Amino acid sequence: MSDLKKGMCLVITTFHKYASKEGDPQFLSKGELKDLLTTELGPVFENCNDQAQLNKIFNDLDNNKDGKVDFQESSCLCKHKVIMSDLMKGMGLLIATFHKYSSKEGDPKFLSKKELKDLITAELGPEIGNCNDQAKLNEFFNNLDVNKDGKVDFQEYVTLVACITMICNEGCQGKKK
Question: How far apart are the C-alpha atoms of 99 and 137, rounded to whole Å?
């Protein structure tokens, strides 16, 4: 399994490890979020006894204000660089994968179209990574390159990984039913 796939699996596994403690395994309750933050974040949230702070974090994550945090909403923890132990390993793999390919040519802070193709082909396997159709690759790259600067920065890459991870999570949940 590629490092990118390992990282995505760790993100999914960490979410479900806590989401399945109370009630609906598709969502984090406030109590489950507190457990996740204090256990996985260690020093950053080891004294997460401040109810106001916990409420703010929970409310910030709960985008649709339904009183629970689903997987997609929880992915904001990663986006804001709040990273947990197993999740930290996964995120480390995601970061290392980006730099493994971005440093092959040009500016190491960005992926060129060729570097992105190489990353997708090598890391995501034949199910997702078959990039032999140049027109589809161009369309994919242009959709990913949000700021239209002709290169994919780390934030655009993380968006790609988050979307693929959410699709993988939905597939996993479909198999469990």
Answer: 20
d(CA 72, CA 70): 6
DSSP 46-114: TTTT-HHHHHHHHHHH-TT-SSSEEHHHHTHHHHTT---HHHHHHHHHHHHHHHHHHTSSS-TTEE-HH
Q: Are 124 and 5 in contact (CB under 8 A)?
A: yes
CATH number assigned to the domain comprising residue 63:
1.10.238.10
Q: Could you tell me the sign of the dihedral formed by the alpha carbons of 1, 142, 112, 106, in that order?
A: negative
- Please identify, among 53, 70, 89, the residue that sits at the C-terminal boundary of a domain: 89
Q: Give 139-173 as a DSSP string.
A: HHHHHH-TT-SSSEEHHHHHHHHHHHHHHHHHHHH
Kindly state whether residues 83 and 7 are assigned to the same domain: yes
Q: Which domain holds residue 69?
A: 3-89
Kindly report, residue by residue over 52-107, the tens digit of the pLDDT. 777 888 888 888 889 888 888 877 665 544 445 677 777 778 888 998 899 888 88
| Whether residues 30 and 73 fall in one domain | yes
